[in-house]
Design brief:
The chain is built from one helix and twelve strands. The chain is an alpha+beta fold. The radius of gyration is 15 Å and the shape is globular. It starts with a strand and ends with a helix. 30% of the residues are buried.
């Protein structure tokens, strides 16, 4: 499995962050747009070519994000209505996602085959998340889905903290 490392604070939409291999080699960097309606995130490769684009659908009852790879739509990630634990549906890909989203520990499956595993990395020199991908062909789509889910989780956490204050 190929492993990518993503910094924990990377999921701030205003910051620029790096996506690296285990040895620290940068593969991609991401930049979020500010002053827009809904969240928008662009992921670029080392040649500054946009490889992944994630956009939030505004005016949606539950969080909904669109994922594009190389300019083509690949998935729509939707948070489903549940009372206790968040659950997400991935439309456009025949993938399912299961796990603990609030702790960033979940798996992406296609039928009986594992596509990717997301987990918090504990034995690194900083706070990182690991994205382990079984097949290189799924790398960008898995990265896009991870960014969509993290955005939805961040949005839900922000809504909870605002309502508690």
């Amino acid at each position: 499995m190929k492993k990518l490392l993503i910094q924990q604070r990377a999921f701030s939409w205003r910051d620029r962050f790096h996506i690296m291999q285990e040895d620290g080699t940068e593969l991609y960097y991401a930049e979020g747009e500010i002053f827009t309606f809904g969240k928008k995130l662009h992921v670029y490769d080392r040649n500054n070519d946009e490889r992944v684009y994630v956009e939030q659908k505004i005016f949606s009852f539950l969080p909904r994000y669109y994922a594009f790879v190389d300019g083509k739509p690949v998935a729509e990630v939707v948070r489903e209505f549940t009372f206790f634990r968040p659950r997400y549906r991935i439309d456009g890909l025949d993938w399912e996602v299961h796990g603990n989203f609030l702790e960033h520990e979940y798996e992406i499956w296609r039928g009986e085959k594992i596509i990717a595993v997301v987990k918090k990395a504990w034995l690194t020199w900083g706070d990182f998340y690991e994205l382990e991908i079984a097949n290189d062909d799924d790398e960008l789509s898995a990265l896009a889905v991870l960014l969509c889910i993290d955005s939805a989780v961040s949005q839900s956490n922000a809504n909870v903290s605002v309502s508690l204050n």
